[in-house]
């Protein structure tokens, strides 16, 4: 994990399509020695800059479903529409195809130039391809992989679909081959071209080895023996696995001065999912510092609360705000019961639309007409009553406005910040190992040690990312020369907080799988695909849990909650029609006829017709 500037020759951007333009050069009658050959280091760097799984379209389309379906987020009240696909397009994970294309280009260069010393570049991009392919499989099951992006090198125009179970085996085999390459001292690497690990082959080997744990936990319900074999191989491999912040797969693609738009991930605004009240309660009760990195503070700092009181609108304050403050003898704000910053995080209630419960709390939690607004003179301002996911954690161009009273100064932070992304950290690997050890898949180590180390490293890694992304309130109480409320606290990790968290009832080790899975879910809060995959395979959050309960709605059967996205039937004129239909048939998946993506919006098909890796997993909310 390095902070690197992209130092790439201009030829990087010119070589991307050269290998596919061979025939065009021939038609122009160009001399072969006049054609620039793509350098493997440039190709690898370009692939790294294009690598992404949770991109803008993913956040625009998929994330909304993921958070709602496993109740790890709440944009409002729940209703039947919460469990259908109400968008006309669902973004598919196809980024791994781009990685395969670059890997194949590098392999072609190596073969044509008899240059095996550059295999490490192919291995780097191959690791990224497998990472993305695991995500794609989570969404759609069987994918095109072994024959994908091969046409320009003599492969088929209509590549086959590979089975999930075969791909998991292949991925492990390829990762082992990549590890051997990374450990080969004959490899030639230009460190500055590696924007992820700065040419450190030992860290690349750890990443490749760690990726196998993602496969093991996805296999364990279908082939426990194989999952155990893979996981045991990980812990005994000489390469090691990601077990520290320094080794984590966390990086940024460019600095502002060298990367342009690339430095910020995307300039497009994203509507962030609102926080689930149950999730926030669990995290705050557990004194989990990550609640501050993942979620925004609400708009009710002490200055705003006092202004409501001064304007005679104390009864207009959110009831949970009033319940969590102390007033002095004159009825003025004195202090927060929970203290800053814990007092500023509240989520939306998990309730069903038009239920008696919803009707009882509608005016308090879901009617914002004039309850949470202030008017001073002619100036009017409204204030966010709930927390939502922090947008700065997914893109670097977000403007923040500090809550102030109407007519007061407009205090804004408009600085663009090069974006840092979390992809795979030591928190994740250790929590996987805790699960695998507790389920008897491996015999090495202590489940408790893996668990506690996983929690500790997860908090530290996300604190690191929050700091790099310069979240509002991180490490400061001033903004553009203006002071926050006097009692406002920064959100950065404080001394002793992890130990306190590990000793709370909701986190303290007791040998239960529930706590391991809950901590995996917390770790994946800003990684919706992993969040969804973990909730789906584990059955958590669990109905009736005393820590983080899933709400069972009387009007919604658990079998009506989708476990995959809808797949629509290809057009008859699509050259892949027959191959795709055969793949769906083999998987037992019924394609939808409605090309708008709404064919199965109210049926149980998306729950009962499961992807291979999901066939033996528990139903939503059932736990293990």
Q: Structural class per helix/strand content? A: mainly alpha
User: What is the subunit arrangement here?
Assistant: single chain
Low-confidence runs: 2-32, 595-601
Total number of strands: 12
- What gross morphology would you assign? globular
Strand order of the largest sheet: 1-8
Biggest beta sheet summary: 2 strands, antiparallel
Strand content: 5-15%
Q: Helical element count?
A: 23
Rg, Å, rounded: 26 Å
Distance between the termini: 35 Å
- Residue share in helices? 25-40%
Mean pLDDT: 89
Quick take:
The protein has about 625 residues and is mainly α.
Textual characterization of the structure:
It is built from 23 helices and twelve strands. Helix 9 packs parallel to helix 17 and helix 17 runs antiparallel to helix 20 (513-523). It is globular and about 80 Å long. The strands form six sheets. A two-stranded antiparallel ribbon has the order 1-8. The protein has a two-stranded antiparallel sheet with strand order 2-3. With 624 residues, it is mainly alpha-helical.
List the helices and strands and how they pair.
Layout: H1 11-14, H2 22-27, H3 40-50, H4 56-60, H5 62-69, H6 95-112, H7 119-140, H8 164-182, H9 201-219, H10 224-236, E1 249-251, H11 256-259, H12 277-285, H13 290-294, H14 302-310, H15 319-323, E2 325-327, E3 333-336, H16 356-366, E4 373-376, E5 379-382, E6 400-401, E7 412-413, E8 421-424, H17 426-438, H18 447-468, E9 478-479, E10 482-483, H19 497-502, H20 513-523, H21 528-538, E11 542-543, E12 549-550, H22 577-587, H23 605-608
Parallel strand pairs: 11-12
Antiparallel strand pairs: 1-8, 2-3, 4-5, 6-7, 9-10
Helix pairs in contact: 3-6, 3-7, 5-21, 6-7, 7-8, 7-9, 8-9, 9-10, 9-17, 17-18, 17-20, 20-21
């Amino acid at each position: 994990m390095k902070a690197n500037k992209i130092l790439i020759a201009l030829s990087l951007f010119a070589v991307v399509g050269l290998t596919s333009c061979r025939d065009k050069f021939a038609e122009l009658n160009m001399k072969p020695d006049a054609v620039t050959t793509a350098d493997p280091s440039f190709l690898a760097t370009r692939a790294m800059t294009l690598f992404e799984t949770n991109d803008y379209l993913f956040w625009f389309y998929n994330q909304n479903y993921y958070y709602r379906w496993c109740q790890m987020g709440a944009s409002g009240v729940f209703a039947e529409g919460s469990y259908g696909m109400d968008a006309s397009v669902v973004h598919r994970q196809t980024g791994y195809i781009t990685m395969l294309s670059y890997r194949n280009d590098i392999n072609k260069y190596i073969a044509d130039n008899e240059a095996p010393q550059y295999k490490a570049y192919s291995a780097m991009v191959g690791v990224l391809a497998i990472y993305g392919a695991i995500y794609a499989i989570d969404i759609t099951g069987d994918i095109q992989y072994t024959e994908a992006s091969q046409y320009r090198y003599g492969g088929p125009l209509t590549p086959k679909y590979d089975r999930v179970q075969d791909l998991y085996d292949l991925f492990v085999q390829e990762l082992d081959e990549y590890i051997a390459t990374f450990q080969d001292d004959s490899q030639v690497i230009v460190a500055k071209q590696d924007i992820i690990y700065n040419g450190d082959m030992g860290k690349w080997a750890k990443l490749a080895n760690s990726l196998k744990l993602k496969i093991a936990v996805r296999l364990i319900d279908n082939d426990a023996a194989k999952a155990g074999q893979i996981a045991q191989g990980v812990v005994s491999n000489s390469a090691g696995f990601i077990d520290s912040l320094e080794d984590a797969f966390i990086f940024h693609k460019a600095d502002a001065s060298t990367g342009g738009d690339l430095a910020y991930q995307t300039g497009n605004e994203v509507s962030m999912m609102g926080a689930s009240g149950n999730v926030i309660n669990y995290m705050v009760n557990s004194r989990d510092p990550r609640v501050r990195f993942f979620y925004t503070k609400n708009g009710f700092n002490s200055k705003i609360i006092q202004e409501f009181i001064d304007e005679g609108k104390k009864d207009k304050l959110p009831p949970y705000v009033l319940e969590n403050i102390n007033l002095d003898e004159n009825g003025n704000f004195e202090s927060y019961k929970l203290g800053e910053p814990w007092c500023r995080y509240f989520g939306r209630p998990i309730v069903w639309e038009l239920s008696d419960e919803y009707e009882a709390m509608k005016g308090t939690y879901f009617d914002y007409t004039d309850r949470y607004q202030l008017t001073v003179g002619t100036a009017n301002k409204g204030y966010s009553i709930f927390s939502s996911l922090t947008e700065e954690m997914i893109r670097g161009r977000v403007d923040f406005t500090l809550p102030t009273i109407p007519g007061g100064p407009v205090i804004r932070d408009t600085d663009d910040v090069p974006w840092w992304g979390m992809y795979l950290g030591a928190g994740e690997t250790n929590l996987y190992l805790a699960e695998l050890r507790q389920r008897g898949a491996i015999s090495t180590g202590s489940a408790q040690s893996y668990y506690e180390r996983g929690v500790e490293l997860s908090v530290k890694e996300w604190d690191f990312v929050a700091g790099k992304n310069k979240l509002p309130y991180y490490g400061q109480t001033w903004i553009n020369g203006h002071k926050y409320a006097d009692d406002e606290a920064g959100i950065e990790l404080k001394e002793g907080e992890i130990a306190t968290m590990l000793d709370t009832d909701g986190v303290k080790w007791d040998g239960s799988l529930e706590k391991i899975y809950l901590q995996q879910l917390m770790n994946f809060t800003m990684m919706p695909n992993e969040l969804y995959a973990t909730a789906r395979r584990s059955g958590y959050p669990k109905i009736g849990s005393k820590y983080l309960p899933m709400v069972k709605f009387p009007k919604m059967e658990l079998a009506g909650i989708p476990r995959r996205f809808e797949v629509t039937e290809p057009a008859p004129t699509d050259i892949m029609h027959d191959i795709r239909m055969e793949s769906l048939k083999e998987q037992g998946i019924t394609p939808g006829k409605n090309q708008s993506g709404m064919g199965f919006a109210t049926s149980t098909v998306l729950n009962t017709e499961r992807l291979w890796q999901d066939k033996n997993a528990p139903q939503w909310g059932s736990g293990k």
